[in-house]
Amino acid sequence: MDIWTYQSVEYVSVAGEAWLASASEYPSSMRALWEARPWAPAVLPCGRAFDVISLPAVFGRRVLDELWTSGPGCGPVATYRGRTLLFVQPGAAGRLRTLLAWEEWARDVPPLLCHGQGDAVTVPPVQRAIDAPESTSSRWIVAPDTSEPWLPGASVVLWACVRAARGRAREAGDPVSNAR
Q: What is the DSSP letter of 117?
């Protein structure tokens, strides 16, 4: 399934909202905020319910295509200011950062921002306002729809990134990457 060719779900289910709120130190306050202003983005800490890998938009699309084509799919995914935000298991951001720094294939992968414990990210609104423009700086590609979404770990994301990077190099005709 190509999630890019179908209209994305731009609202979060009640169970997904509970999962997102669980990332906050004050989940009931977060739920009250969303009840009052469901169209407002929110800032949530990483490390408790999820970590977030922020990828350049085009590369992010390739990674998501790899996750859906070659692997298990993905959990929640959002866009924010031209980047793709992939929600991953807590602890995966630090591990991915380490794996990319250590392994020889890191040079093939564009710079990723790995948000983990101690970081915070802006998440899209839980609902899109009826009169909101089609393209906003923040929206859900795959909205949270359960209280326990499947989140990929560092190794799943690493291999999706490597396959996406190598596919990009093959398409560009890079003889070095084609020889690998």
A: T
Structure tokens at 130: 């009826």
Beta bridge partners of 79: 84, 139
Q: Is 65 exposed, middle or buried (0-12, 13-18, 19+ CB in 10 A)?
A: middle
Q: Over the stretch 50-81, which tens digit does the pLDDT of each residue have?
A: 999 999 999 999 999 999 998 788 999 999 99
pTM of the model: 0.85
Output the CA torsion 162→165→166→167 (10° steps). Answer: 120
Let me know: does 75 contact 147? Beta carbons within 8 Å: no
Which tokens sit at 126? 């839980």
Which among 8, 27, 2, 12 is positioned nearest to 127, based on CA atoms? Answer: 12
